[in-house]
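forwarding from the other thread:

> can someone predict this with iron/sulfur cluster?

sure thing
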Amino acid sequence: MECPLLKTCNFFQDKMENMPATAGIMKKRYCLKDNSKCARFMVASTLGREKVPADLFPNQHDKAANLINNNG
Ligand code: SF4
């Protein structure tokens, strides 16, 4: 299932700095398939989109979990 945030997500839209070489793979894995495993989506869905750090990548689950635990 496609992530509902695709159109406005800075990661999917290639608007983040230092996009990793694996960005294409991550888009397939998270954005186009299973957003429930995406660190950005985890933060957006629990704390709100405005709380998603500008530099958070979809595979940074520990960082997302820390943010959620400290803000939730
Ligand atoms: S899965 Fe994550 S990175 Fe992809 S569009 Fe959704 S919030 Fe953005």
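The radius of gyration is 11 Å. thats all i got for now
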